[in-house]
Input
Amino acid sequence: MAIPNGNLTTECADAVSRFWTAGEIRKLGVITDVPTAGSIFGLSGDAAFELVRLGSFPVPVLRVGLRDLVPVASILSVLRLAPSIAGKDAASHRIGEMDDWQMGPTVNPRSVAELAPTNGGRVAEPEFPPSTFREYAERWRRTREAGWAHETRKRVPANLRDHLYPHFGDRPIVSITLTDVLDWLTRYLDSGRPKTSATLYLNVLKAVMHAAVIDRVIPDNPCDGVGLSGVLRGVTRRPRWIPTDDDVLRLIKAVPEVYRAAIWLGAAQGLRLGEVLGLEEAPRCIDPKRQQLHVVQQLRHTNSVAGGFVLTAPKAGSAGTVDLDAVVAEQIARHVRQYPPQAIEMLDNTGMEPEVRAVRLLFTNSRRRPLTDQRWSALWSGWRSDAGWPAQGTFHSLRHYFATTMISNGVAPEQVQHALRHANLRITLESYVHWIPRHDRTVGLVGEILSGSGGLR
Output
């Protein structure tokens, strides 16, 4: 199916394993979407979006409203294909066939490096002199962090420093093999550290290596053969710690009244922190008459835009409308009466086109400016201590409290999924199945039927 006014195809089934012809690429038009562009480079949809998030996609990506778009001209340029072919049937030429406008023998586009000019069947020499993993990774980070969100700029250097450099840092990047990556991963998992974090660190390593492939520093990505899903099979989504009713009540008392409604939004609505800080006094977010809460935006702090703050869509696939709890509605109304929101000019990137508009945020700092991650963390640390919460108690723990309270009180998992705005029911069940009341679980049904039918008792 094509998206109107953009010639953007979303028909990506079996795209990773297919071969794209030069003619097919040109027929995409001026721009295309990320999954289609990723398939041209041999990437799955998930891998393509992850590289976009890390700023390591093979070609520039344009952010237009809620969409990430890729100029087709950039794809043709990276693949060293002319915009058009005169006097030839473009559709009959596959990427990599010998021609004066292409680059060598037939190849599988799973590896972009294979599309580099060849000489006697060998991959062309790297454009950069040989370097260690640390040297290349630092250059990769410096050239991409300008477009990262604030939390990403803090997280990625720490991931590199604490988890990748100790193992790979001083090694020549071209010498790192699949076996080396698996050795690092095995050591990490055997150390007893959180298994779920391995996905995060591997994604950073994969992004660095993919960029090195594009730069022709290495011939292929040694992470491509790592089946992490199999390694981590059985790792639970179950929360590490969930507050009790008393824990939440103590926290509400410990939090100053100016931020108390934020705690209610987390505990009684299940909103994430960014979604709470991005709430504004406007019908687009809060509709007391219809008793609805529209979760359509979150606040992000970034140095890449003027003012340092931007409204973006919630976590992928989680925008939606949920029922507004009556108690929460009262808390919001009281908050607005006592602390009337003031309009703040900021970039809104949630619509089809970015726009700068006046936003009446519910929660701001003492200077009536949006709250940064660092400021909120400092405030939260003190409130958590005053409430007697453990160190692993975060704002997200309130979301877990909301979900488990609903499930343990007999709310159907499908309704909980809707309230949490999870992409699918599997996520909800994997996270909270242990809180489903036992009387709601079908236990012994088949045995009872068989025993009764066969007269075995």
The two ends are 59 Å apart (CA to CA). The first helix runs from residue 22 to 26. The domain at 133-231 is CATH 1.10.150.130 (DNA polymerase; domain 1).
